[in-house]
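Weekly structure sync, notes
Attendees: PL, DS, HV (note-taker this week)

Item 1: NPC1 like intracellular cholesterol transporter 1
DS walked through the input record. Source organism listed as Sparus aurata. Sequence as pasted into the shared doc:
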Amino acid sequence: MRLSRNCFLLCSGCHKCAFFFTSMQVLSEAQHEPGFCAFYEECGFNPLVDDSTALIPPTVPCLNYSPARHLTGAHYLKLKQVCPMLDNGKSNTYACCSIKQLKSLESSLRLSKVILLRCPSCADNFAHLHCINTCSPNQTQTVEVTKVMNITTFQNTTDTAVVAYKAFISTTFADSAFGSCKNVRIPATGGFAIGTMCGPYGATQCTPQYWYDFQGDSSNGLAPLDIDFKLINEGNTTGLPAGVVPYNGRALKCNETTPTEGEACSCQDCTESCQMIQISPTTSPFTLLGADGYLVVSIILFCLLTFAFLLYLFVACFLRSRRNRKDEEKGRGKGRGKDQNSNDVNQPLIDPAEVTCTDRNSLVAQAFLSSKFQFWGTLMLFCIPSSFKVLLLSAVVVAVFSAGLKSIELTTDPVELWSATNSRARMEKEFHDTTFDPFFRTNQLILTAPGRKGHQYDSLLFGPTNFSGIISKELIMQLLELQTRIQNIEFWSEDLNRIASLKDVCFAPLNPVNSSLTDCAVNSLPQYFQNSVNNINAKVNMTENGVTAEVDWRDHLIYCLNSPLSFKDITDLGLSCMADYGAPVFPFLAVGGYKDENFTDAEALILTFSLNNYARDNVKFKVAMQWEQEFINMVQEYRNNPNTNFTFAFMAERSLEDEINRTTAEDIPIFMISYAVIFVYIAVALGEYSSLKRILVDSKFLVGLGGILVVGCSVLASMGFYSWIGIPSSLVILQVVPFLVLAVGADNIFIFVLEYQRDVRRAGETREEHIGRILGNVAPSMLLCSLSESVCFFLGGLSTMPAVKSFALYAALAVLMDFVLQMTAFVALLSLDARRQDNNRCELVCCLTVKTQRANKPNEGFLLPLMRKYYAPALLNCYSRIIVMVVFIFMFCASLFLMFHVTVGLDQELAMPKGSYMLDYFQYLYKYFEVGVPVYFVTKKGYNFSTMAGMNGVCSSVGCDEYSLTQKIQSYLAIPANSWVDDYIDWLNPGSGCCRLYTSGPNIGNFCSASEVNLFFPVFPASRFMAYHTPLTNSQEFTAALLRARELAHNITMGMRQIPGTRIRLIFYILAFRPSSRVTNVFYEQYLTIVSEGFFTISQCLVPTFVVCCLLLGLDLRSGFLNLITIIMITVDTVGVMTLWGIDYNAVALINLVTAVGISVEFVSHMTRSFALSIKPTHVERAKEATANMGSAVFAGVAMTNLPGILVLALAKAQLIQIFFFRLNLIITLLGMAHGLVFLPVLLSYFGTYFIGSFVCLHQRGVKSFL
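Item 1 (cont.): predicted structure, written out as tokens:
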């Protein structure tokens, strides 16, 4: 096409026609043979290139088919300097270029070296080809002249100049040269150098052919003439002119040194140069015998425990049979014994000499505790006024403690809840936010347009390009309209006492002091058009390669998505790609849901408004919060508009906290209903229903209400006390502690009240003495559980996790206060109720009485006979016991295996209520965002940047340490870190064209030397290097990223400490959180240690369950040990079921596991003590008695109290409550009930404390004669 046009121009005059035919004759006579040149020497300027737009002088060579010249002297030296690959020694070097051509070539290559010199082998390969084209002694074999013109030379003569030619290159050389350059970076922009050398295709679509086409295009101002590069596959001669041999020299790899001793390219510019960083490897799965190691261990453990149990049965059977034979031979065991009153007893007579020291200690402990509690109960209830005094005194104490609630501090900040103030992440965050500004507040929309058809656009510059349905002019205009509406939000601010808008709180990086709306950082696709409707509508006819077509917004958008840092596109539209606030909009911040960087195929548009992250005590913090609320209101209104063409999700910085607070407020009624259900159950279950006529007399509505009030008062007293001393509370405490104390309190209430109802007042015994005696019987058991739980929780207060620590402290005091109030206020209340009941007065309406008298016999209710007659015998027969033991051993081993596979973490979606708009946002975020969160590596003061070694330790270009900071980050993240050091080094490059002038002060306009800038280096308090993570979608990925990055930061720190003159203390890693400005290290740090933290905390809680049980049972180690084993099994089984039910292990789960230990004590300790104090002759009978008597009370008091309230929580909207309060508490209650009422009786029947002779002897001889 160009040749035809040139022919027409040449034929316009006779002399031009003559010249044209002469030129064609010359071209036809040129032969492709070795040792000959196609052109030589500079002729003049190319008349086809506009001098005003050319970046280099468009000098073209003269057509000259002649032998290559032998180079000597200065000519040879210049060739050796510019094109060393053509040097064959002084006597044997030939070339087809003059010294002037070499100088022009050198000047031209200097421009490319500015961006390629970071990688010497790339710069060498780039120069290599142009040296071959210009100077090769075999020029005619690789070059074919295609166009010449008659021009006026520099000597004012007319000569034939070459203005176009073909260059034949082997694809082997071309691919290798391109490969050495494709990853070379431009630190100042963060982009690839190849993106500036590939025309419209940018770095992502660039190929060797496109790369060379751009180099040979004279219209870009970088090439003096047109070069048509032909890339020929090696060995393929089809279509080649005779004698042409495509150049196939050796291109250097990017990790090779150059012949001129240029160093290998750095890791950031050459992936082949990257060295593996030696950080601790990821822990490989534990395996044994080629299978899951935990599974193998669990199976082995199950087999061992089962075998040990069966062996025990066999040995026990054998020993029992031998003992029975010996007893028969001696005649022992025949007949019945007599007690001190000559009454028959079922046990053999025990001589005091047979009583062991342990038995005597047990008797002393039980006798002491029972007598003291009996004395206390009788004394306290001696007269009716005493009961009222006790109630009044209890109320006063509770009121004094609760007065602290006026200064209660409720912690809602996740950072304060889950991260200790002295934790590494907290200290790093504080240092980062103090030294640098906190990460800005994010307000974002992710918009889609499902169902809209895309189209293919045949671009003049870029060829056929697919556009998705959402990348349409109509939707871009609608997005711009929405963006403009949001930008124009105005509202009255009480804090500023004026109308406020976005410009008052926006993040304006280039004009932070006096910002306008156009200074605010708003990232979106319309920013590629500077938010201008005129720019979007702009279109122009453009001619490219002889083809004229219309270019419009699509051509501009394609270019900007691939070259977001350009100030001017390559179309005739001449529009900038920069946002109106002066910064680039990277494509991953404007579009999402694309593949392989085909941005126009994106499925989503992204609109982001960034606000300054003010401190909470800053007056503008409330203004920012108010703007975000207005933003939410506007977006919700827009979404509800039926004319909206978008389907989208959105969030504001305040959204997380707002939604958590909203769901908490909405679920408060659910908790109230839960407690109401529990209250109704307690009130109904405590009643005696022997006669319909006495139902209003025998009901226990007020007693149940009193029990609930005791629980509530104990919680209030605990919260008030800790508020007095400045320990903050949290929503977790408000939700969990009442439930825990209610479980403990209800159990004690049921045990106390049911024992009173099942006992008959003895002859001559007063009501107060009766209640005192009952209290003496049951209070030691209540003390055992309450003291175990309280000490357990106090030890849990040693946890380093603030939320766990405060929960444990609040729970410990609440349980302790609950026990104290039960021993005082509740006993007094029960006494008053018993007096009312004895006087046959109706409850609530005490003035009414009934005539039907109360039967003077024990009221066992329906549960005790049922368990005594049916449940206990069925559970404790010889076959059931074996099955129960094997089943529970299997459950334990299976749960142990599952425990090692529990998922650790807490995804933020779970904190949101069902139906929350934030759930849609998280779904869109994970689906459409193609880049991860920004990360920072921060150096503290002590690093010396002023030395060469110091600079090399942090930079990433050629010559830098191969294990420098940025090199290591590159090898870890695969996304390079932006380094100001690299920018500084480029600024120092004399060939960069960067102006180093003073912009202010007395030296304004004068050159600024690098040495003066170096003066500031040693005093830098800190420096940070930013990069981007790959997408992270759940807490496990965030935690793993944090762990690996900390290992990398430690590795970098150790390496930098080896640099002379450096005393750097630490390099740390900060991970910014996109949906929130808080730094996520603080939140996810807990999961690095939560397993060991949980093990430590639960172990601390288990210790008192053993110690207290042993002490209060008179150093009964066996009972304490069996107690401990059962609680451990409940805890392990709970974690195992958590794994099956999809409940992650995290701080909330840990709090519930600590609660599980406390509730397990209620299920287990009462039963263990009841068994230990039984005087039945055999283990099985004692287990039956404990199961019937105490098991029925535990079932009614713990299991049936918790279950109704827990089931109500299933109605909660918050997923967090459904999972960690409904599911987990249901698991804890069911497993506690199963182990306490099924497994423990069987375990005690086999391994329980041996016959305690002291209690039998006590029963037979009386206390005084025994002691």
